[in-house]
Amino acid sequence: MKSQHQVILSIGSNQGNRLENVKHCIELIHQKIGTVIKVSRIFETPSWGFDSDAFYNCALVLHTFSAPHKILTQALKVEKELGRIRSDKKGYQSRIIDIDLIAFDEEIIDSEKLQVPHPLMQDRKFVLLPIQDLNLDWKHPVIKKNISELLEVSSDHSECEAIETVESPLQSIALEQFNYVALEGNIGAGKTTLAIKIAEDFNAKTVLERFADNPFLPKFYKDQNRYAFPLEMSFLADRYQQLSDDLAQFDLFKDFLVADYHIFKSLIFAKITLAEDEYRLYRNLFDIVYREMPKPDLYIYLYQNSERLLQNIKKRGRNYEQKIPADYLDKINSGYLDYIKSQTDLNVLIIDVSDKDFVKNQEDYLFVLEEIRKKINN
């Protein structure tokens, strides 16, 4: 799965309650455009290019899967919602809010409606200082200088003073208090997508299952009775090996890890796929392995109904998954829920994402984060 884009936006206001305008703008960007990861301090700066009241300026970095022109369109909608009426008059003007798309990763975009990086950013101290405040590893792809180097050679010598600190929207979600978070779900529930997204947004390390490399998987979907036992044994061996290797690289008391599976899923699937005598043997082996595995501090189960799961499976297009029946998915869901009920010492959060798309819809992703926040605070 592809990583999210890193986008830098600059925000300014010099009409009305400038501080509230900027804060409200950040909230709307977070809700409608992408996940706001960092927010700079607010700098008060004199109007640039015309005589008017001083501006409040800040910069932020957000993560999104959206294309740059879509981000621009969404930013204009946010401006409009906050009351900005764009004028056809030439030159600089006072404004209740102004959002500029400064950078999109380190790409160069030169279209009729959008130029990225912003063509004047290197000449504007009120843009450079807030971006420097974000402490990003970013270099101008045309000028080949980082923000500090751009400030050193900037021709803008206006006074820009940091006057206010604004909280980033993610600061209210203390997810990093956990060292090890496991995301689970049925086939097609989106657990890997969400694990990667959360890890990127909260600066965590990932442990992702290597399911695509299992040679028995396509054979199993063609002949379940014959290949169920070797499939489940190979999964168990691979998961044990991977978790042992990956977790050994990290300090579970210091590092923050997000995994897209917990090894107990092996037992859930084995109970469904194996004959009774095979399952008894498998269970004995599993119990030995399970005792050695660290348990997640937070276990999140993404519930989706089978109809939606089948749609997701069809959409992602893996040939060997296309004939999975709905009753098999129902059994997996039941297996997970029975397991969760039996785990009295596991910190469990169940989130129903049956009507959610946390890749395409920012509001749906924020719904998931809000459920996590409420779990943490309870």
UniProtKB/TrEMBL annotation:
Molecular functions (GO terms): 2-amino-4-hydroxy-6-hydroxymethyldihydropteridine diphosphokinase activity; ATP binding; kinase activity
EC class (word): transferase
InterPro entries: DNK_dom (IPR031314), Hppk (IPR000550), Hppk_sf (IPR035907), P-loop_NTPase (IPR027417)
UniProt pathway: Cofactor biosynthesis; tetrahydrofolate biosynthesis; 2-amino-4-hydroxy-6-hydroxymethyl-7,8-dihydropteridine diphosphate from 7,8-dihydroneopterin triphosphate: step 4/4
Domain Deoxynucleoside kinase: 182-376
Keyword line: ATP-binding, Folate biosynthesis, Kinase, Nucleotide-binding, Transferase
Domain 7,8-dihydro-6-hydroxymethylpterin-pyrophosphokinase, first and last residues per copy: 8-134
EC number(s) given by UniProt: 2.7.6.3
UniProt GO BP: folic acid biosynthetic process; tetrahydrofolate biosynthetic process
Function: Catalyzes the transfer of pyrophosphate from adenosine triphosphate (ATP) to 6-hydroxymethyl-7,8-dihydropterin, an enzymatic step in folate biosynthesis pathway.
Family designation: Belongs to the HPPK family.
Protein name: 2-amino-4-hydroxy-6-hydroxymethyldihydropteridine pyrophosphokinase
